Amino acid sequence: MAANDYEAFYRSLKRDGPRPAYYFQGAEDVLKDQALSHLLDAALDPSARDFNLDLVSADQVAPEAVCDLCRSLPLMAERRVVVVRGIEAWKRRNKGKKVLTEYLRHSSGETTLVLLQGSADEKVDKDLAAVTYAVDFASLPPHHLRRWLKQEAAARGLTFGEGADEHLLAAAGSDLGRLGSELEKLAAVAEDGAVTLEQCESLVGIRRGETVFDWREAVLDGRPDDAVRLVPHVLSQSGVSGVRLVTLLGVQLVGVGIARAHYDDGTRGRALQSAIFDALRKARPFGLQSWKDEAANWARWAPAWSLVRIGRALRLARDADAMLKDTRVSSEAGVLTDLVLRLTIGAEVPV
User: Fold this and answer.
1) Cα dihedral 135, 141, 147, 151 sign
2) Bridge-partner residues for 64, per DSSP?
3) Is 265 helix (H, G, I), strand (E, B) or coil?
4) Can you tell me the distance from the alpha carbon of 85 to that of 118, in angstroms, rounded to the nearest whole number?
């Protein structure tokens, strides 16, 4: 059975109330913590919360002991909650997990058990998923990310001026933890809660035109001077590495390849962008800007990037990635500069 997404979790919690057992897994630990907070608010009486909440770690508590906690009766309330973090630590405890899954098949009606798996472990525990309400907190697609940012900003009394939210997303990327941290800083300085583009630039420390996406555009536009100039700027930014930049470029090249295939079949204009958007919606790639913007960009680049040129570019990106992962290479900037020049100098004429 497929896991539910985070939106399904919130709908279920609002409609049906807390369930007997949850299994939270997936890439976004921030979303798990937010969901847990909502679940605790829904499940526990505030006046008796401290008496009816157990927070434990799987590397310190055996599955059998968790079952004992779940069988304890709530105190002065209708329900209690047991939260277990890091359940990937139980991987080799087959006997204990068997006891736990048996309990979950006949779980206590007075206890809600929440099993949280860390983002570092992406493998779904099928045994636990089969006997719980499993939720996959996957990385957010661009349109959900924008909505999340708007909701988090509103919770802090913030609104965005023109271009401010777009720059924040381009500068901070899809890291929810970092975005939340930047919002906290903005909340401390924004007058009347209105965040300007200039404030975003100042606090995030990245100016317009110097994000990883600006570097990507300079490469694919065939502007080697701009792309080379941006290399040290983007490499100095938090969370950015040479490998990340080459990976981003590789994803873009594959996307432009999809666009070029449709272009070669005679698709043009809005029909081309629509075909690319449909491909993005099916693939749901992580770490991009809005799918609408990406579709427009890939359609714009398609005429200048033949499939032969894209194939060569992907091979060059692969080689650069291998060099960047070689511990003997001392200069990321040098590898990226060489890659940029190989991709842009002497590029073929659009066909």
Assistant:
1) positive
2) none
3) coil
4) 8
186, 198 Cβ separation under 8 angstroms: no
Tally of CB atoms within 10 A around 212: 23
- pLDDT tens-place string over residues 174-190: 999 999 999 999 999 88
Which residue type sits at 44? L
User: By the 8 A CB rule, do 107 and 20 touch?
Assistant: yes
DSSP string of 284-305, one letter each residue = --SS-S-HHHHHHHHHHHGGG-
C-alpha 121/C-alpha 144 separation (Å) is 23
Q: Stretch 108-114: mean pLDDT, rounded? A: 93
Using CA atoms, how far apart are residues 348 and 351, in angstroms rounded to an integer? 8
pLDDT band at 329 (very low <50, low <70, confident <90, very high): confident
What pLDDT is recorded for position 348? Answer: 53
- Structure token pair of residue 295: 């579709």
| Cβ 13 vs Cβ 42: under 8 Å | yes
pLDDT at 127: 92
Q: What is the mean pLDDT of residues 308-330?
A: 93
State the Cα–Cα distance between residues 82 and 112, nearest whole angstrom: 6
Which H helix or E strand runs over 47? none
Q: What is the value of pTM for the model shown?
A: 0.86
Q: Which domains does the chain have, with CATH numbers?
A: 6-136 (3.40.50.300), 142-204 (1.10.8.60), 212-344 (1.20.272.10)
The answer to whether 305 and 227 are in contact (CB under 8 A) is no
